[in-house]
Predict the structure.
Amino acid sequence: MKSAAEAHPLTLALPKGRLEQDVQAHLAARGITFSFENRKLVAYDPSGLLKIMLVKNADLPVYVHHGIAGLGICGDDVIYESGYEFFTLADLPFGSTKMCLAGAKTPDVQPREDSVMRVATKFTRFTRDYFHNQGVAVEMIKLNGSVELAPVLGLTPYIVDLVETGSTLKANNLEVLQVLQEISVRLIANPAYYKYHYRQVDAFVRLLNQEEGT
């Protein structure tokens, strides 16, 4: 007989967008299928293993922190910006990117050590901590939209942003000046949830780590 902890599906938060599709394909290759029908934001896989919640990327750590979802899949950047502590259970083989310092393609674009860098970014916590640890004074302007516009329109000479292909930077005559950190996609868990459901969660982690088709 199943215990009370094993009688219910695991709750998993997924971010809307590209990672949602990557996770769906990764799980489908391991026999777990699901879909969000009629604009619904909650889905179940037919086996009853998972209850999947579709949330905004930046909100995902909030749902996991408060135990609404016991598990979540998101990038290092999202985890760091949240400031919350989670158990990291798996490093997933898709969705990796880079956190970069970027600016205009000019001969003298590197910041001087004795000056204050003006940087536009969505990732204020990461940017502040990174440059503080480097001993570089930084003035940040938080943007929620396309940060590439900041150098183009003269708001700031630099941006800190995720870069995957670099095509948007190139289209706006910008370039990567420095790779600050490699960003991976992780399976995270609410610590209390993991302690209560560790058998189910560990079995799910083994499934995620299986080679495709095995």
Observations:
- Confidence is low (pLDDT under 50) at residues 1-5.
- Residues 97-183 form a domain with the D-Maltodextrin-Binding Protein; domain 2 fold (CATH 3.40.190.10).
